[in-house]
Design goal:
The complex is a heterodimer. By secondary structure, chain A is mostly beta strands. Chain A contains no helices and nine strands. In chain A, a hairpin with a 6-residue loop joins strand 3 and strand 4. Chain A is globular, with a radius of gyration of 13 Å. By secondary structure, chain B is an all-beta fold. In chain B, the strands form three sheets. In chain B, strands 2, 4, 5, 6, 9, 12 and 13 form a seven-stranded mixed sheet that branches. A four-stranded antiparallel sheet of chain B has the order 1-3-8-7, with no helix packed on it. A two-stranded antiparallel sheet of chain B has the order 10-11. The N and C termini of chain B lie far apart (36 Å). The chains are: A mainly beta, B mainly beta. Chains A and B meet through strand 3 and strand 4 of A and strand 4, strand 5, strand 9, strand 11 and strand 12 of B.
Amino acid sequence: DAKTTQPNSMESNEEEPVHLPCNHSTISGTDYIHWYRQLPSQGPEYVIHGLTSNVNNRMASLAIAEDRKSSTLILHRATLRDAAVYYCILSGGSGTYKYIFGTGTRLKVLA
Amino acid sequence: DARVTQTPRHKVTEMGQEVTMRCQPILGHNTVFWYRQTMMQGLELLAYFRNRAPLDDSGMPKDRFSAEMPDATLATLKIQPSEPRDSAVYFCASGLVQTSGIILYNEQFFGPGTRLTVL
């Protein structure tokens, strides 16, 4: 299973953009890149996913490097409610769709 | 708003007792996953099912854990006998596997979890 590497923690000021990086140098051609986040005392929730092209949704944007070996989750204006652990996960390659969660990035948003 | 439901939300039991956790996946989803989360190990995949058939339970201690899907609306995770090291939050997730050529895509929807404490 392809692995991902993320910083353990990051801080951001409220109302400012946040760029959360993820390295996945062993990604296969058929792996989707997923981002989930886990708010305190809740289960993980879907944020965004992509394959090759950059993606936007109402929650965030996903920027994928041209070689697909890294990606960045972009929160355009961080709010206090965005404080969570963010997980970058690869899935879909090798005929499997199970997720292997890493340690994620704990995002702290400062008021 | 369709959600994955899990019962019970909290369970405190004594070592050696049997524990059963239940999950109701979102109607129409064809995959169900069981995860365990602890401070030390993070989120670990225990087992998953597709169309009610177990596909992978390699993450599960076989001697005491068992996972089943009696029907499409119910998944169960059983621990017998329970031990203090089983104390954790257990999450169920469901999803709908879709294929695009050879690529499998599956967004997972997580339940609120069952917090298990084994004394």
